[in-house]
Design a protein that fits this description.
Layout (H helix, E strand, L loop, with lengths): L1 E5 L20 E2 L2 E2 H11 L4 E6 L3 H15 L2 E6 L7 H6 L1 H4 L7 E5 L2 E3 L3 H11 L3 E7 L7 E5 L6 E6 L8 E9 L14 H11 L3 E5 L4 E3 L3 H18 L14 E3 L4 E2 L4 E2 L3 E3 L4 E2 L4 E7 L4 E2 L4 E7 L4 E2 L4 E3 L3 E2 L4 E2 L4 E3 L1 E3 L4 E2 L7 E2 L1
Amino acid sequence: MKAFILVGGFGTRLRPLTLSLPKPLVDFANKPIIIHQIEALKAVGVDEVVLTVNYQAEVMLNFLKGVEANLKIKITCLRETESIGMAGPLALARDKLVDGSGEPFFVLSSDVISEYPFKEMIEFHKAHGGEASIMVTKVDEPSKYGVVVMEETTGKVEKFVEKPKLYVGNKINAGIYLLNPSVVDKIELRPTSIEKETFPKIAAAQGFYAMVLPGFWMDIGQPRDYITGLRLYLDSLRKKCPAKLTTGADIVGNVLVDETAKIGEGCLIGPDVAIGPGCIVESGVRLSRCTVMRGARIKKHACISSSIIGWHSTVGQWARIENMTILGEDVHVRDEIYSNGGVVLPHKEIKSNILMPGIY
């Protein structure tokens, strides 16, 4: 079985982190986003993953060579020389995805984090016998997304409505599909929107079915959703694999600490915190609702909440970092500095307080 992961784009919404690495390689819960997806695909028997790469292609290719060896799964990368929408890359990958076996293949957006119920989706797809399956998830605010209008009992898709002004339903496209090879034959190799052109044709032919995604879902393509996604992911881990979470006198709620990280005395860590490999958290530090990425150092008595600390960055003693502050790679915050929502570009030193959200 094969899978196709849509990787294109520059990850502008997740800057400054994506100035250092392509978005699929940005750490989420202590490992790159794309690794969460590839591991889940391998677990249901997918033996080849196909990706199109564009931004920082060499970095992606070198990383994926290592993943291929470590996870023992074939990874095929195709160069996308220009942005050709979502359907274009599928047409580009036709020869890799359609091998004459007739087996359906998965298509995933690289921004999506969930429990990846691929096994249930395969069963659903076989049961309805249609040409295509899509995962949908319920949201409170559907006007920000592409809404899927469907029959509640059968799951048959009636139509797709992009960012509706009027309420048409609360089930949105979750960015996970299972498609028969025949779908690829309907796509031309040109800048194409699969949602606007290809999928409506399949729905009109009564061959498209939607499955409501069990468990959590989040598109983590921007910082606020990334932090929300971390909370949902850790909560899911608590229910399914509680042994993976860190426990101790200094821990409150769901916390994930890499075994190579060092935590000082008298800290208070949690809830909803991920601390990556090689991090050093000195004594008396307070962390909540945040990610501290690989190699970062948090000095004594610093306080960080609702923020992302990039790779190899340093937060000084008694510093206070909050309100969606994002430190890019190798940022150094001086002692006793306050940051309120600062988005700090890589390799910078912050010597004075950031009182208003903005790019620095």
